[in-house]
Amino acid sequence: MFKVHAIAPQRLPALLKAMPKAELHIHIEGSLEPELIFVLAKRNGVTLPYADVTALRSAYAFTNLQSFLDLYYAGASVLLHEQDFYDMAWAYFEKAAADHVVRAELFFDPQTHTARGVAMGAVIEGLHRACRDAQAKWDISADLILCFLRHLSEEDALETLEEAMPWREHFIGVGLDSSEVGHPPENFARVFARARELDLHVVAHAGEEGPPAYIWSALDTLHVERIDHGVQAVHDAALMKRLADSQMPLTVCPLSNLKLCVFNSLADHNLGQMLDAGLCVTINSDDPAYFGGYLNENYLQTFAALHLGAQQAYRLAANSIEASFAPEEDKHRWMHQLKVCFQDFAEND
Ligand SMILES: [Zn+2]
């Protein structure tokens, strides 16, 4: 077994980059970089309300979740054809491969596209083809999670799930995203029950900006297997105990929280506090094109700001692998790779 204390602090950034890890909270539409938005706009004849890449990027100064979502939906308007969805996911996988991501579970928002007249099949088939090709080229294991937009009705979500059924084998679960406050999880109890009947995994955003009550509701009315974000849990001692006792995974997104002003600075982030409390915390990038960093950047900046060390690095990477929905034999293989990676860093000191 590796000795964490034998890893020199100055080698920590290299270790964070090199260690195998899973990404469990990435909205694929949030990986759409301004450069690709303009390429797709040109290809599809879509007019954007920004003169160029610089003008678009300079609009990425958000004050809260909603200010980001307004721009995010504008960016997604360039996605029309199966190849557009493929190209978007492929660009993400190139970044993920460089970050030593071995497993990625990609959220996608079909309602953002079907409401504009884009066919469900174009969305799912384009993303699925990219997942398959990422496995072949980089040995990245990837699956899709269909997310419902919570600012729309549950009826719309139910219709969306049924509309996606012809592609049931191309996604492994459902999630709940978009504007959180005012749209509590219990509003979506029926569609989540339906998803569970269909043997789909279930996750939900809760406690990003919303209160701890939303996390309780995601657990007790949606019966989720992971909480996306969950950082507001620290305001509720009983909830913290429940999350620790059940080892409920939380997919925390530090740079997203910073950009959307959930915390004033990364040094104020409560990720270290949640780890200390024994919660099953993971680090993720959320919408990396908009929030200033892909997965490794989230690890690097968070570790620097919170003065975390190799022990926490191992815990977070192991949590990400164990909390994924990948087959057990894959998890065993990645856990072995993780241990070998830490051993190499300890021995090479
Ligand atoms: Zn998210």
UniProtKB/TrEMBL annotation:
Site-annotated residues for Important for catalytic activity: H229
Cofactors, names only: Zn(2+)
SUPFAM superfamilies on file: Metallo-dependent hydrolases
First-level EC class: hydrolase
Example of a GO biological process term: adenine catabolic process
EC number(s) stated in the UniProt entry for this protein: 3.5.4.2
Family matches, as InterPro entries: A_deaminase_dom, ADE, Ado/ade_deaminase, Metal_Hydrolase
Residue sites binding substrate per the record: D287
HAMAP family according to UniProt: Adenine_deaminase (MF_01962)
Function (record text): Catalyzes the hydrolytic deamination of adenine to hypoxanthine. Plays an important role in the purine salvage pathway and in nitrogen catabolism.
Family that this chain belongs to: Belongs to the metallo-dependent hydrolases superfamily. Adenosine and AMP deaminases family. Adenine deaminase type 2 subfamily.
Protein's name in the database: Adenine deaminase
Species annotation: Limnohabitans radicicola
Lineage summary: Bacteria, Pseudomonadati, Pseudomonadota, Betaproteobacteria, Burkholderiales
